[in-house]
Amino acid sequence: MPITYPSPGGGCFSVSGRIDRNGGQLIPKRDDDLKTEPEPKIAGERTAVLLMRVDSHWEDESARMAELRGLAKAAGYSVIAEISQRRGRDSRYQIGKGKIAEAVAFRPDRLIFYNPLSPGQLFHISSEFDVPPMDRFNLILEIFASRAQTREAKLQVELARLTYEAPFARTMASLRKLSERPGFRGSGAYDESAYQDIRGRMAKIRSALKDVEQTGEDRRERRRELGFDLVALAGYTNAGKSSLLNALTGSAVAAEDELFTTLSPTTRSMKLGGRGLVLTDTVGFIDDLPHFMIKAFRSTLSEIIYADLILLVADLSDPPETLRKKLVASHAALWECETKAPMITVLNKADLLSLDEIASAIDQIWDLAPHPVVVSVKTGDGFSDLLSKIGEHLPPWREQEAHLPYTEEGLDRLYHLYSSAEMLDVRYGDEINVRFRSRDKLGDSGVGG
Ligand SMILES: Nc1nc2c(ncn2[C@@H]2O[C@H](COP(=O)(O)OP(=O)(O)OP(=O)(O)O)[C@@H](O)[C@H]2O)c(=O)[nH]1
Ligand SMILES: [Mg+2]
To answer: Given the CA of residue 235, which atom of ligand 1 is nearest to it?
Structure first.
């Protein structure tokens, strides 16, 4: 049962808000501001006001607001005002009720909260204001839903949405009942059955995704048997993962200055010193990614989980505090995925910094950046270092021997070795004696004879 929001505010015109970028506070409109003709809304354009309750220990509220703005943009909203307030959490409205009233006065189509909204808060805000609220997780889900193209991505998004909504469905239904019939407590059998429907659908999706995961596992196994090393690109959204994939493999995967451009894994191959690599680009990470989302995206993330090597891409041009936070978020996500592969940290976008700035940035994040390499995908700087580091960290190749019979099967194996291993010596006698170098897996799969 999807959460039902009240219908949007209905205003056809938006009045632009003025935002004080330093304090993040909304500046009240002056009279002369009001003289400006409101810009007509472009057909289909959705407007939003961003609301953020600033916790006392936060020092990076403007970076958090900037990211929320980026997410809103990626979801197709045009942000008309940003309102923040430093205060403790309000149990009914998350932020001060007066701030919500200020936001509603802009007549946006949506109120987007940075802070997570509990089912109770969602209910109270929805019932007292006529602009539907959503929080950051919901916004991320909306972006994912609009970009999901493959069956796998669609199933994952639905699973994440249902996991997110299940507790809401229960609470919203009973709160609605409470408000309709004062004195009536508890949800009835109907609400419980709707909740059970959600659980049932989630179980079905999980099982379908297990099949997808198995297919992925078989595909990775086949690639390894063909002698490919599997390299996964991971990292915070917008760090330049797809751009790096394009630069290394000469492809043209979509790379945009927008959050979550990539959702489904994209794979391209390349050669490195005689070895074949399969590079996979996947969905980016974001701060505070809830555990349920990582679980829902497990089949996509398994390209990272089971890789032979992970390239953790980071945007070195971010302010050091932001860069640290993004690296922490990336490591936390990788930790949740239980990755075991070695990792190289690709510090990208070096073209945007001076040499001094690069040195100072590295100084502040070295503990979060295993095996760092500074590159610029834009200029190609640092690529030779990156390629030699990749070579150093690939699974080792060892020298092996095979004795193949002169049969169709033996010749098939020989052909397979030529395409997947470095051939050192081939002698034709009573049988074909081959000396080659390859990763262990080839020997294990019986090709080694
Ligand atoms: N200046 C500069 N910009 C870069 C560099 N590498 C990537 N970019 C830009 O950074 C933005 C994001 O790049 P993407 O490759 O889409 O990043 P991503 O990590 O794949 O992002 P998502 O798929 O959205 O998670 C794009 O506008 C790129 O052109 C670089 O070395 N220098
Ligand atoms: Mg991408």
So the answer is: 19
How remote is the C-alpha of 349 from its chain's centroid?
19
Q: What is the pLDDT of residues 107-159, one digit of tens each?
A: 999 999 999 998 889 889 999 999 999 999 999 999 988 888 888 888 998 99
> How far apart are the CA of 238 and the centre of ligand 1, in A?
5
Give residue 66's pLDDT band: very low, low, confident or very high (50, 70, 90).
very high
pLDDT digits (tens, 9 = 90+) for 381-411: 999 999 999 999 998 888 999 999 988 899 9
Q: Tens of pLDDT along 191-209?
A: 667 777 888 899 999 999 9
CA of 45 to the centre of ligand 1 (A): 25
Spatial strand order in the sheet of 397-404: 397-404, 432-439, 422-428
Per the listing, tokens 């081939």 go with: 426
For residue 81, being part of any structural domain is answered with yes
- The model's pTM is 0.79
Residue whose CA lies nearest to ligand 1 atom number 2: 349
Last residue of a domain, one of 96, 123, 145: 145
CA-to-CA separations, 154 to 197, 209, 263, 326, 440, in angstroms, rounded: 19, 10, 10, 26, 36
Q: Which residues surround ligand 2, an ion (CB under 5 A)?
A: 241-242, 261-262
Ligand 1, residues at Cβ distance < 6 Å: 237-243, 255-257, 259-262, 284, 348-349, 351-352, 376-378
Q: What's the one-letter identity of residue 72?
A: A
8 within a domain of the structure (yes/no): no
Query: Could you tell me the distance, in angstroms and rounded to a whole number, from the CA of residue 261 to the centre of ligand 2?
Result: 5
218 assigned to some structural domain: no
Domain that holds residue 408: 397-444
Mutate to test the pocket of ligand 1, among 67, 243, 256, 326 (most ligand atoms within 8 A of CB): 243
Q: What's the rounded mean pLDDT across residues 176-195? A: 55
Residues 346 and 333 in one domain: yes
The CA R_g of the chain, rounded to the nearest whole Å, is: 27
Token digits for 211?
């099949």
Most confident segment among 24-33, 162-171, 209-218: 209-218
Which protein residue's CA is at the shortest distance from atom 32 of ligand 1?
349
For 221, the token pair is 């196994």
